[in-house]
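step 3/5: co-fold with beta-D-glucopyranose
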Amino acid sequence: MGKQLEGQIALVTGSSSGIGAGIAIALGEAGATVIVNYHSDKSRKSAEEVLVKIKSAGSGGIVFQCNISIEREVKEMFAEILARFGTIDIVVTNAGIQQDAPFLEMTLEQWNAVISTNLTGQFLCAREAAKEFKRRGVKRERSKAAGKIICMSSVHEVIPWAGHVNYAASKGGVKLLMQSMAQELAPLKIRVNSLAPGAIKTRINKDAWDTPEDEKKLLELIPYERIGEAEDVAKAAVWLASDESDYVTGITLFIDGGMTLYPGFADNG
Ligand code: BGC
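step 4/5: write tokens
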């Protein structure tokens, strides 16, 4: 049996590090050609390292710099992908940031930066992807679906988060962006789903697990008593991108060790 994503083209935004890097590598291992998107110049080297891992798994790909919150750059990135690879099959709108501040001190810049990257960026990339999926339609030799969009949400699409209102609002927005896109695009055979990670050990939440005390405190929020790894999310991304999940659209798949199970109620209430 061939690899399950053989012959498919995948874009993973923000994949020079963290969860995005894990997903890009896993899609490559499953046979996809992967566009490893990064934003800032200083991330180029790590994006190239991700591509090396994809190539050593036997798949192709490129690295591509783009600020996914800028419409012109997103359009240029998709034009380049289509010119080089002919089409695209899988888009993981992963890129996301945190800029935390107490609510009373949060600046409009902090608000706008997080909404632009985490919400507008996912809208822009999903829209360009859907245009190409619609144009090409279903090609059974590639996949049963015309295309797969995987949004990056968070447990904070449902868990309120003091000190992070911009981030929680962006992920709450992703929830209904994803569901509304899924409803609208299903007749076109485009599947749209979200991954919602809990605490995954990456740079974005280093402050929460860096010291043994912080780690202990964080584990109190995770019934499964382990902090997640990028691979935990990456495996689910491969499944959502593959025909194994062909009848799945409009879902949020929580990958959180039970963080959304209200662990504070385990011995209280
Ligand atoms: C955030 C992390 C946080 C986790 C659980 C994620 O979406 O980016 O910083 O540790 O949610 O709270």
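step 5/5: annotate
Helices lie at 18-29, 44-56, 71-85, 108-136, 165-185, 206-209, 212-219, 230-241.
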